[in-house]
Design brief:
Structural class: mainly alpha
Shape: elongated
Helix content: 55-70%
Number of strands: 0
Largest sheet: none
Number of helices: 5
Length: 151
């Protein structure tokens, strides 16, 4: 009887020791180090992301710009690349991933880069037109938010 209780006590103390040590090892494991992890951030700003509210006109303008971008890229591709490109776009893959999978030659890469830069500038212009629009609704008076109210 005494031997069974000693065995049980030994087993429980061993389990407890392992659980304690393993918990300490897990908690002591280093987290991701920002200096060694690859840069995954696409935007470095102090302002957190806020959802963009686009008007229907802006959505249409971006859609037209995207369609023009795709047509310009398709014009550069050979028939097999064009087939892959159209199939990937229909499956809603990201444009950069699609372009990497096409094995473009250097001339095509330069031209595609130029097309993408033009598209990005067009989108920025469309989005900046949103930022310049007043945020107050018709009939409301917009109060200045940069100055505190003095009593």
């Amino acid at each position: 009887m005494l031997i069974n209780s000693i065995k049980r006590l030994s087993v429980f103390s061993t389990i407890f020791a392992f659980a304690t040590v393993l918990n300490g090892v897990v908690l002591a494991a280093p987290g991701p180090n920002p200096s060694t992890t690859p840069a995954l951030k696409t935007q470095t700003s102090a302002v957190p992301h806020q959802p963009i509210k686009l008007t229907n006109q802006q959505r249409q303008q971006i859609q037209v710009a995207r369609q023009q971008r795709d047509k310009n890229i398709e014009a550069l591709l050979n028939p097999s690349q064009d087939t892959k490109f159209k199939a990937a776009l229909q499956s809603r893959q990201r444009i950069r991933i699609v372009l990497k999978s096409l094995d473009l030659n250097q001339d095509q890469q330069k031209q595609v880069q130029s097309i993408l830069q033009t598209y990005n500038l067009q989108v920025k212009k469309i989005l900046s037109s949103q930022a310049s629009q007043p945020t107050s609704k018709p009939g409301e008076i917009a109060s200045p938010t940069s100055q505190p109210i003095k009593k």
